[in-house]
Write a structure and sequence with these properties.
The complex is a heterodimer of chains A (213) and B (264).
Chain A lengths: L2 H18 L8 E2 L1 H8 L3 H13 L3 E3 L5 E3 L4 H25 L2 H19 L3 H18 L3 H6 L1 H7 L4 H4 L2 H19 L3 H23 L1
Antiparallel strand pairs in A: 1-3, 2-3
Helix pairs in contact in A: 1-3, 2-3, 4-6, 4-11, 5-6, 5-10, 10-11
Chain B lengths: L34 H15 L10 H8 L3 H13 L3 E3 L5 E3 L4 H24 L2 H16 L2 H15 L3 H19 L5 H20 L2 H19 L19 H7 L10
Antiparallel strand pairs in B: 1-2
The chains are: A mainly alpha (213), B mainly alpha (264).
Chain lengths: 213, 264
């Protein structure tokens, strides 16, 4: 990776973390030159970081073309997690009965990668794996309708990665939850899997709400 | 995208009456609606109401002629409707209403029972000033018949829940359910039961009684489930469970799950 792109990567990571943790206030407009000065780098990598944040939905262009931080309010976060809890606990209960051996093996691989990313302190990769693990659970529920519709829930949730907010103890806990969840699904223990999923999501929600208040 | 908020041209289509305007001295000026949106709204409504336009096969040529527009906006509309799961490619070319399998119906009912009682509770908990427009919309939906009335009613409550995520799931679920109902023969007795259920939900929301609204919605959806499909213990199309089929051959059969976002 070139010197230049790694600067843009670091600018992106710093910018996203500042947005998600609300060190930069939601609703405020971001100016390339000011950010470059704050970060102590040139404008080109900042521009790249801004574009990435815009693509991922953290930033929106307002009527004047300015890039404005667009984050769900704490009330929206709470509501989103209420729905996630309903849907994901439902999916996990069905998955405990219906998951295939191939899917269990796939989850094993994802959880192993989870541990690697945790050791490498790679928050981006952790967030990506988190999405892949939760998606596999939806597929394992064998509710095709749910799999087709779940995108509606995930679009807006993208700016809400608890991995970007939590400290290393939080990340360790999320990864441990994932590993335990796979064990419970393998044992077809639906009740315990649902209980674990509920506490997993509540932990993520508390993290995001504490951070935003 | 509300059923009553659509262009009024297109005589081939059934009209859903607009709510009466207030006695304002000036009527609202409306923007011209882009052709692709007009095509989408018109075809969607025909699909949901069982109108002649969508009775049989949906082809670009026929629809372009019926709607007096070129094929391009029609094609775009058809692609979007297919993506939304309301229509599917027809073996003879063009599209047809999506056929709903018993499994689809069961999945829709389960998800609606999971999500819509929460939507009703949240809608009832909204402050009184935002419950008023909802009450008006629900009253309008109670007047409308069949699948269209059902759809309007449930979408209005989902939108009023204040949760974009909830509404984003409930709306497409209800659209799919409406496509299914539009293909079923009418049943006056079932219609009366459904209407009574909707009234109970609306009354609880109007009172601001969240717990009662949640319960009334749950009971209403149990009636929906009883009306739209017989609840058999082992419905057709049920995938083999890992417990009942554990051989290598069956493992291959179950390792092909529907992928998220895939449309058929």
């Amino acid at each position: 990776m070139s010197q230049h792109s790694s600067l843009a990567d670091r600018a992106y990571a710093e910018l996203r973390s500042a947005i998600v943790s609300r060190r930069l206030a939601p609703g405020s407009a971001l100016v390339e030159a000011e950010l470059a000065a704050m970060l102590g780098i040139s404008r080109t990598p900042v521009r790249e970081a801004l574009r990435r944040c815009e693509l991922e939905g953290y930033l929106q262009r307002d009527a004047n073309g300015r890039l404005v931080i667009d984050l769900p309010t704490p009330a929206e976060v709470a509501r989103l997690f209420e729905v996630r809890e309903l849907v994901e606990c439902y999916a996990v209960r069905l998955a405990a009965e219906r998951i295939s051996d191939a899917e269990l093996e796939q989850l094993d691989r994802l959880v192993a990668e989870d541990l690697d990313a945790l050791r490498a302190r790679d928050a981006d990769r952790l967030a990506e794996l988190n999405g892949a693990i939760h998606n596999t659970l939806f597929e394992a529920s064998r509710n095709r309708t749910l799999c087709e519709l779940i995108g509606a829930l995930q679009g807006r949730a993208h700016g809400l990665e608890a991995f970007a907010v939590g400290d290393s103890a939080d990340r360790e806990r999320f990864v441990a939850d994932h590993r335990r969840l796979v064990e419970l699904l393998r044992a077809s223990d639906g009740d315990a899997a649902v209980t674990l999923m509920r506490s997993h999501l509540r932990h993520a929600r508390e993290l995001l709400l504490t951070d935003s208040s | 995208m509300d059923l009553h908020d659509r262009p009024t041209d297109g005589d081939a289509l059934p009209r859903v009456p607009r709510p009466p305007d207030d006695d304002a001295p000036l009527r609202r000026v409306t923007r011209p609606v882009p052709l692709a949106k007009r095509a989408y709204d018109a075809i969607r409504e025909a699909v949901l109401t069982g109108a002649d336009l969508a009775a049989d096969r949906l082809t670009e040529d026929d629809l372009a002629r019926s709607l007096s527009m070129s094929r391009t906006p029609v094609r775009e509309a058809l692609q979007r409707l297919a993506l939304a799961g309301l229509i599917e490619p027809s073996p003879g070319g063009g599209y047809a209403r999506r056929r709903t399998t018993p499994r689809d119906v069961r999945e829709q009912c389960e998800l609606r029972l999971l999500l819509e009682p929460l939507a009703a509770r949240l809608a009832a908990a909204a402050p009184p000033e935002s419950r008023e427009p909802l009450a008006a919309e629900l009253a309008g939906a109670l007047e409308a018949d069949g699948a269209v009335g059902e759809l309007r009613f449930h979408v209005a409550i989902a939108d009023a829940s204040g949760s974009g995520a909830l509404a984003g799931l409930i709306r497409p679920l209800n659209e799919r359910a409406a496509v299914h109902r539009a293909q079923q023969p009418g049943d006056a007795q079932a219609e009366r039961r459904l209407r009574a259920g909707r009234k109970a939900v609306a009354a609880a929301i109007e009172r601001g009684d969240g717990a009662a609204a949640e319960q009334a919605m749950r009971e209403h959806l149990e009636v929906v489930r009883a009306v739209v499909g017989p609840a058999s213990a082992r419905p057709a199309g049920e995938p083999p469970s890992r417990r009942t089929a554990a051989g290598p051959a069956s493992r291959r059969a179950v390792s092909n799950p529907a992928s998220p976002g895939a449309s058929r």
